């Protein structure tokens, strides 16, 4: 869908497949100019074709969240070359299978798996927020959606996939800190986190009960909140969850 002068611009990271693809597709269908963050030029080409197949036009941008050192420069360049970014959806994340991965014990977790998970799931989101929210605050409008998980919920924390759990708990903490700063600014910038539930994706697997469309629903809602909407919350199915 062509965007108009008045349409908003959204950046969705990890947008070439799964929930991120569906969030980008739905925002584009709503009239947003969507920047679809992907990890490589090859994925950018494939993503363009995949979005065209489902009837929307997006602009792929190469952002490797696993390389936080270069990510800041890439985002600075993006701000110079794209319309102002009104909506940021931090969707890109990894869950590494292996020691410290999906089913193993914390005591089997390797430093490498912990570091790789932390860099993408936490540092990547921190860098994007630090780069893009100042512009939102200056312009007086912004929506940030951090794609978290009930796996990072301290209220019901248990064992299993320790690196992923810790990273999502940290992302929730980042959400609270940044939302408090945004809220203190007095302008209409909102920062929230959400859990998509267990979704049929490469990460969630084929046995998951939810479709990517269902997994994207709460993120779309948070991306399009009006000025009376929540700030600094954690949601699943549009309902607030305990941290």
From TrEMBL:
Residue ranges of the TM segments: none
Source taxon at top rank: Bacteria
UniProt keyword NADP present: yes
Domain Ketoreductase: 8-192
InterPro entries xref list: KR_dom, NAD(P)-bd_dom_sf, SDR_fam
Keyword Oxidoreductase recorded: yes
A GO MF term: oxidoreductase activity
Keywords: NADP, Oxidoreductase
Family statement: Belongs to the short-chain dehydrogenases/reductases (SDR) family.
Entry protein name: Short-chain dehydrogenase
The species this protein was found in: Hyphomicrobium facile
